[in-house]
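hey
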């Protein structure tokens, strides 16, 4: 059977999550198209027909499987709705509003590891309208395929969330201290900020650039992970992505500090924390090992294969035991308003295709 896949996105940060999936789908000889709710990511697509330009073309395409890298998906689109996730659990929100929020749009959750699989399975017991399968996360597949990059001096990758509540960029003393350390010549700093970061904050960081402090604008930060020895950050899911390399991370006022992080609350401690990261203790090394195994115990670069297998297998499974997805009339209206497509159709029942 020639399956038709749709990769459904909103922002540019979804591109490096979807591309490994696209590669896997094409390697199998199946069809794959993209659709973006918003205009921002569309500039990254060549005129090759990979991107469906409007929702009517999506309906006409009739995907069998919709790989979703957003929090919601248009419920009237045909096909199995699969949540791929746009990041790791970052603990920036409450349980009810965060990573485990059930919005009633998805048939299948492809979870990243035990830390999320266990919780989603517990939620599923009271919400029997979706399935949970642990696959690992497609975005980090290239992390285990790109070789470590050579460097002339110890290199630190700086990242940040866009949220003013958690971002180090909103602390002038932190910005000043990073600038001071960068001018000592001891380290090379690579800086990448969230694309939704306030323009003024991005401009400020850009203004600090010099030979050892380089700002990089890219939707795909995975290659940068292979160029850095440690990371400096705050509260962002990029921390977990980086840490899968078993490399230390220094955080400033992390929302949920733990033994796998070197967390500080004072800018004056940044330099000593960096030195500690370059010479990690045995306890820190063990804590990082435990954390990564619990969060994403897949280091083979093969999560996209597991995702596609899980989707195809579930598409053909008997789903009579599952309940209808909830009505969620307000959310369904909002997605129609966003797309300017007011369909009365709503696919609340899981699709089932009998095997040939």
């Amino acid at each position: 059977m020639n399956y038709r896949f749709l990769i459904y996105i909103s922002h540019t940060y979804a591109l490096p999550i979807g591309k490994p999936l696209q590669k896997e789908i094409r390697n199998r000889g199946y069809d794959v198209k993209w659709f973006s709710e918003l205009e921002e990511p569309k500039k990254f697509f060549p005129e090759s027909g990979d991107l469906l330009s409007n929702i009517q073309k999506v309906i006409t395409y009739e995907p069998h499987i919709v790989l979703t890298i957003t929090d919601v998906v248009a419920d009237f689109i045909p096909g199995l709705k699969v949540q791929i996730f746009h990041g790791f659990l970052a603990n920036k929100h409450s349980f009810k509003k965060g990573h485990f929020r059930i919005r009633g749009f998805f048939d299948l959750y492809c979870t990243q590891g035990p830390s999320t699989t266990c919780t989603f399975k517990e939620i599923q017991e009271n919400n029997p309208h979706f399935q949970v399968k642990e696959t690992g996360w497609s975005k980090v597949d290239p992390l285990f395929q790109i070789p470590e990059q050579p460097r002339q001096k110890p290199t630190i990758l700086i990242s940040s969330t866009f949220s003013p509540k958690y971002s180090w960029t909103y602390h002038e003393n932190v910005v000043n201290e990073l600038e001071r350390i960068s001018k000592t010549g001891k380290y090379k700093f690579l800086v990448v900020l969230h694309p939704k970061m306030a323009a003024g904050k991005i401009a400020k960081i850009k203004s600090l650039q010099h030979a050892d402090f380089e700002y990089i604008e890219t939707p795909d930060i995975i290659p940068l992970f292979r160029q850095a020895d440690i990371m400096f950050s705050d509260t962002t899911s990029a921390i977990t992505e980086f840490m899968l390399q078993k490399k230390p991370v220094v955080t400033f006022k992390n929302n949920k500090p733990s033994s796998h992080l070197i967390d500080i609350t004072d800018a004056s401690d940044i330099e000593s924390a960096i030195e500690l990261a370059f010479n990690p203790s045995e306890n820190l090394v063990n804590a990082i090992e435990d954390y990564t195994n619990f969060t994403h115990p897949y280091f083979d670069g093969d999560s996209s294969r597991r995702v596609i297998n899980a989707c195809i297998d579930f598409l053909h499974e008997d789903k009579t035991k599952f309940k209808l997805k909830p009505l969620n009339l307000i959310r369904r209206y909002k997605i129609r308003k966003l797309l300017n497509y007011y369909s009365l159709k709503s696919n609340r029942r899981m699709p089932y295709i009998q095997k040939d």
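The mean pLDDT is 93. The longest strand covers residues 4-9.
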